[in-house]
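Page 42, continued from yesterday. The earlier attempt failed because a stray header line got pasted into the input along with the sequence. Redoing it now with the clean sequence only.
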Amino acid sequence: MHRYLTQPWLDAQRELAQEFPHRPGATARMQYVVTGGPDGDIKYYWAVVDGTITEDALGEDPDAEFTLTLSLDDSIKIQKGELDPNAAFMQGRMKVSGNMGKLMSLLPLTQSPEYKAIQEKIRAVTEY
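This time it went through. Structure tokens are written below.
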């Protein structure tokens, strides 16, 4: 088990995400900011190339194309599958800054059966 929003959790997520099929053009650098944690805000980032997470780490990515900001509670709900990320975005619970077009091009991937299967595997190794 990996504690949510730690580097070991990010590493496990990247490893499991290698199962995601090659998606040409699904490429982005994204920054996440999770607010309201017991130790303050947590920042981490992903680099995704053709649907594969190639880089992830705690901290800030100065080359991020967009930033997603959401509360710890909503972040956990999304991770547990209790809140759809598209709905969180549409309801304003997930704030976005930066290249909105780049984010919009990636949102359909979150509805794919492959993505949902990987999310289930990540939930199984996550301690909240």
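Notes: The first strand starts at residue 2 and ends at 3.
Reminder to self: strip header lines before submitting.
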